[in-house]
Amino acid sequence: MKQQSKTLYIAILAFVLAVYYLVWGVYLAKLGFFNKEELFLIEKAKIIFEGTGNRLKVMGLTSPLLPFYNTFIFTTISYTVAPILASAFGTGILFYLICSTLIKRTNDEFYILAILLLFLFHPGLLYVGSAGKSTYMVLIFFYLFFLNIFKFYNSNTTFHVSISSICLVVLIFCDYKFVWLTLFFIPLVLSISIHTLNLGEKESIFRLFLSFNNPSLRRKLISKSMAIFVILFILPLASILIYKMLNLTHANDLNYFIDSPYSNWSVLAEKIDYSTLQDTVNHKLPEISIIISARVIIFFPLILLAFYLFRDNTYQMLTLLTPFFFIEFLKIKYAKVFITEQYYIIFLILALLCIVTKINTVRNEGMFKVILTLMIVLSVYTGYSIMYTSAIAEENNFISCILHKKVTDSQEEVKSVAAYINNLPQESHVLLDDAIAYPIASFSRDIRSLTLPYQDDYLSAIEAPQKYDRYILIASNKNSANSYTELNTKYVALYKSANSNVSLRKVFETDNWILFQVL
């Protein structure tokens, strides 16, 4: 098969795969499966395109920034389906990128079909493609980042380091936690610099010994290390600094995009998930240091095949270890946050990258195909295991939808509150805090009928709601997020004591929400 024909072939497969994920995503939405990030992005997109007031801060400081912008492409079709469309076609693009790397090294279609089967049936990849989360962009640029690092090892051309730097910038703006990945690339920069030296020794450890014992080579090593460090890290660091200054200018907080629940959905979600689940999670492989890496190897055995393929390459092995150090660091840095699927699934993508880049070096291809097939089957099985035993409710809910067509944590309550608000008289305005009530706002038919924190009148509306709104949405005492908002039952008591001439009448109530009418 000619190169152009193979490219068209994998492009068609990628498109079919995207449609497959889209069908799954729509089906899951009809079952009632939604995730917090998806609803957060839907609400923010509605504010941008339909809201009133100053929306500049929402447009520029919503995190994750680039996946948020990517959903704009599909909002003309439907706000609700836009995140699903973005993740479905984004995961299709990821498949295309992996296979396009593969076909440059082998003509055997077996490997394309093997990767296709993995993308079709692995629950982690199915979750990435159909759940409407931003993980697809993380995986795309994680893959491109490491691909260009490996290309540099083969070509010794710093152009690939520059491309890696750009990919790292995008990766950080897809998930800011990946900024900590740079910490573990400092020794890797040293390894890269040693690799560029024209020495007779092939092994890095001997190259390092020679470099430090020769003054001329030592100076050359330091110069090259600094040059590569600048090429690889100056753009990410400068981008973060500029973006933090933008946050300081518009929100008076350098870390607004990572610390504010109005900018980042995960700020409260991670706290609430941990406080809710820490006493109920039993009989599961614990998330503690060292065991995190063991979980990776258990649930993603393909990574062992990657280590085997690079067993003779010291610097590539060091590169493969970098994400392990990264995920261990995350557990130490964010001790009260569970490690989500997207930080585990990167190891599956890294394993695929290693396989497709080293496939042409395999000697016993028949045996390798058998082992690869067994590893893929085992990976699919362990993929279900990791999500089934996950401490994250959304991941358990997803598996329940896939296997049993049953939603264990649906948004029916949220939908019922939104439906009541949607049926209020047209001139009625509702005061709500979208730090915790963004799921309700995402199901709102008219975002302009809501008074939200991004608007200049919000603080005035809290002090004197009778001048701005007819209704107030309150978080009940049963709501696990009621302590993270001003609009809770304490607010009602304070408002009644301070405004004897104005009364509040309860018009709608669920377990977690109470809607009051201002009289």
- Portion in helices: 55-70%
Order of helices and strands: HHHHHHHHHHHHHHHHHHHHHEHEHEHEE
Shape: globular
Q: How many helix segments?
A: 24
Query: What's the rounded overall pLDDT mean?
Result: 88
Tally the structural domains. 2
**Strand runs, count:** 5
Radius of gyration, in Å, reads: 25 Å
Low-confidence stretches: none
Which strand order does the major sheet show?
Answer: 2-1-3-5-4
Q: Which structural category fits the helices and strands?
A: mainly alpha
Q: End-to-end span in angstroms?
A: 75 Å
What profile does the largest beta sheet have?
5 strands, mixed
Indicate the proportion of strand residues.
Answer: under 5%
Organism: Mucilaginibacter polytrichastri
Protein name: Glycosyltransferase RgtA/B/C/D-like domain-containing protein
Keywords: Membrane, Transmembrane, Transmembrane helix
Transmembrane segments: 7-29, 72-98, 110-128, 134-150, 157-173, 179-200, 221-243, 288-310, 342-359, 371-393
Could you please describe the fold and organization of this structure?
Keywords: Membrane, Transmembrane, Transmembrane helix. The chain crosses the membrane at residues 7-29, 72-98, 110-128, 134-150, 157-173, 179-200, 221-243, 288-310, 342-359, 371-393. The structure is a single chain. By secondary structure, the chain is mainly α. The chain folds into two domains: 3-404, no CATH class; 412-518, no CATH class. The chain has a five-stranded mixed beta sheet, with helices on both faces. The protein has 24 helices and five strands.
